[in-house]
Amino acid sequence: MNTPGQHSASSPLILFAAKNAHEEVTAKVVRMMLKYEILRFQIENNLIELDTKQRDQKRQEAIQLRIEGFRTQRESGEKGLPFTYDDELLRREGTRIAYLLLRDATEEATRIEEGVVAISVNKALYGMDDDLIKFATAA
What we know:
By secondary structure, the chain is mostly helical. It has one domain. It contains 5 helices and no strands. Helix 1 runs antiparallel to helix 2 and helix 1 packs across helix 4. The longest helix is centred in the middle third of the chain and has 27 residues. The N terminus and C terminus are likely disordered.
C-alpha cells in the first residue's frame, strides 16, 4: 500500500484538510517553510533559469516566506496554539520536490507536499511519528 509521498500515478491526489484552527495554522506554516526550502534549494543549485534580477526576487520571496512562517508560528503560540515542526524533514522533502519539479513531475511533487503537511501536522500537534502515520495510512 502507498504511504504519503509514495503514491502510484493512478491513485487520487488527496489534499490535506485541516480539522480545526490549530491544524490550519500549522499546515499554513509548514507549507510556507516547505516552499522556502524548495526555493532555497533551486536557487543555490541553479535548478531554475533566472537572470540576476529574477534570482534576487526569488531569494527575497524565499526570505519573506521564512520570516512570515516564523511570525505566524510565534503569533499562533501567543494565542495558545503552539507547535513545532521538523525542519530536517522539510529540508529533505523540499530537496526531493525541487528535483521532481525540475523533471516536470508536478503531480508527484504535490503528492509529496500533501504527505509532508499531513505528517508534519500530526507530528506537531498529536505526537504521531512517521512510522505511526505510515502504518495508519496503510491500514
